User: What shape does this take?
Amino acid sequence: MAQPPIPPPLPTKKFQCFACGNIIEVPRGMPKPAACPRCGAPLMAIHRVDKGPPGGRGAGRRGAGGPGGGRGRGPRWSQ
Ligand SMILES: [Zn+2]
Assistant: This one.
């Protein structure tokens, strides 16, 4: 009985559209999606979410001067 070989799960990168909260999974080696497939938000609204060691690049406290801080790492804009 020959079972069809199950390919190992491809490593994927995860991005989240901060405009609609959509999670976009992209196989490794593929470029970051140019736009959210769901809402069409531009690249700047799409951020990597599966990576990012806590405290990797400094605390990021630079006083961006934007309303609401802007640079939250958590999925705060779930809607
Ligand atoms: Zn979106």
Summary: The two ends are 48 Å apart (CA to CA). Residues 17, 19-20, 22, 36, 38-39, 41 surround zinc ion (CB under 6 Å).
